[in-house]
Design a protein that fits this description.
By secondary structure, this protein is mainly beta. It contains five helices and 49 strands.
Length: 826
Amino acid sequence: MKQDRISSGQPAPRHRPLRGRLLAGVATLACGPLLLAGQALAQEATAPVPAAGSADGLAAEAVYLDAGAVSRDGDVLTAESPPEGARVFARFRDHTLQARQIDYDLANQTARASGEVELTAPDGTVVFASLLELEDDLQTGVAVDFATRLENGASLMAATAVRRSDTLNELNYALFTPCPICDEEGRPRTPSISIQAERVVQDEALRAILYRNAVFKIGGVPVLYLPFFGHPDPTVERASGFLVPLIEFDEERGVSYEQPYLIVVSPSEDWLISPQLNTGVAPLLNVQWRRRFADGTVEVRSGYTYERTFGDFDIDDDGIDDVATPLDREHRSYLLAHGRFDPQGPWRWGFTVERVSDKTLFDRYDVRNPYPDNGLYYGDERRLISQIYAEHQTRRSYVSVAAFDIQSLRVAIPNEAAPGLNVFEADSSLPVVAPLITARWEPRGEVLGGRLRLSGSSVALFRDDFVGSPVLRPEIVPDPVPAGLSGVDSRRVSGQLDWRRAFISRAGVIWEPFVDGRVDLYSLDDLPPPFEAGSETLSRGRFSAGLDIRYPLVRSFAGGGDLIVEPRAQLSISTATDLDPRIPNEDSQTLELDESSLFRIDRFPGYDLYEGGARLTLGTRATYRWGEAREASVFIGKSWRDDDAPGLRALIPNPDPLAPPAFYDPNGLVSSSSDWVVQGSFSPSDGVRGWGHATVDDSGNIRRAEASVEATWRRRDAASVTYIVDRSNPLGGPLNRNYEFVELRGQQFIWGNWGIAGAGVMDLERDLITRSEVGLLFDDDCFRFELGYRRDNTRVRPSGPSDGVYIRLNLATFGGSGYDRNERRW
């Protein structure tokens, strides 16, 4: 059977008006089968059950027909459906075929179908047509008004289609779109993005779709013509090719154009080359390599440029940079790499390497995601961590061994007049950790009817530069600090025992007695004067015992709501606190006092600080639930201790070296009465949810607080507001660490798929909008485009406040601006 046999029955499209009518008919035909899906399933239910060892239970030469009327003329079976009845259903060679009329030649194994044709192949691919002819054991054929839907939802349609072989399809006057072509009611709609071409070849062996005389359309409007064009088959997970570019404007860099190109080496390896071209400064070459191994993965990102340090160095705003040394061009680069390997067995290991040549490179070139969370330990915001680690885990034990080094990109002293002269935190003031070992083990059965856990920790830290408070206790920091002091090196070994058992009374009260014991051994070097040079060895211990009581109460209301109230009390008695002033505070400088930490024996996250004495902790959580997934919850708690703990105080940083030392309570635990802990959450509907957390001192002043509310409506409209404040540091001036921010984000669709989107961060302490952006948005679940304006006013930018224009583009199937391993190519 050849293509001209079809042409004799229906003329092939040769003119633009005819091509347009045919493609319109294809769209109608492609939407129509959605309304017939239920009918097709009903027909399939009448088919015979497949036999074991055969996909459809039929012999190789057999065919199954279900039709209103079937006739036979020699070896040709003709099945027809009644005018208003269900379509003819046929099954043969693991294929299913539905149409108004089907002619099947038993001798030649060919088929011809017409009228609402729907063919389903063994791999699940569905083809729609008005006329379909198959031959050569169903490997080749011709279709009129051809349409098919790919696995990812994309559609491929054509006026005529010819299947040359089992891997090659040729389509004439075709249209490809990754967007929906039918509305919710099954009617044809104009796709947001489409490619229309005179001829399209789908080469399954090459895994590519090739176009001739391709016209790109957005919303049905032609925007680009290419005589030749190609892209990977959308069913291909990864393929070499260009990704969607990134286009921005920045006052320092000028117009910035970044064009990523993906090179797929193998199914387990690829390269991403992404040069950033700028009109104002030298380009930045970004390269990424990824490789998947049998038991792990490795990813390496790197960038390189040869450029000067550009920024705002003008202190007196006279237009002249006030830098004493010339800003020569230098080799500048960054490296962000990580790997994780998980072979069979209890061991796994990994590494991270994170380094940058100068502390403002990420900011000046707007490098994406420069602070990733990889590895066993994460570097916090504006700190990079390089580490190697190994873990051993079984059902009852865990051991980890790690070593790491930190590079800081934090601004220590901001220069408001000339941000290019900001003073950054010195890397030599941060410790090198080698090694850090943690372990825990639990016996198989119960011990004295309860759970016993043994744990241990060991760490060694080394510093080059001397660092005073809060690492060292204020009382041992010399005043003034002599020049040339070395950093204090420390080594610690800790062992801990934790036993707990639960009893439940008939009234539902939960009683949990517990016992906890810990021993620490420290070895210190290079303590400041007046301590002697050399090593100091210290030891201390703590033993605690107590009782944890909870009483959950539930009440159901006639309206369908449930109120759950759970009061909780904990009484613990520990040995007196032994906070030797010579012990550095390396791992307990930050404490987030919340519901979970309030009831812990060790409230501090590390080992260097701890509490002792008698403690009473009280708290209550109340939760009200109603409807489906609707609830509101609030918790209030507080702790009391038998005495104050002055050893938990921290020194207030003061730029005046002659000022007397002053101290403050950084965590709300210095006094015998802790801060109040208040936190809650609510979700009154599917579209609204929020949460909040605050610590409040006995005077009613908020020490720290954070709250957020998110709302969605009309499916795609959304907004959120987040508030965060820290007023724990009483010092004023440039070294004050207090902050207060409000962050707003939202998008609102105004007309159809068009809307506006914006975001902003307001620094209430400085009365300054630090970041803001607003833009025009188009989004129809297939194509998202944003064009907007943004301003960056953060202290870390060496160029000072920056205004710019951004363009963000994300295309279904083809890929997006924020590319990752799952996005498509174009």
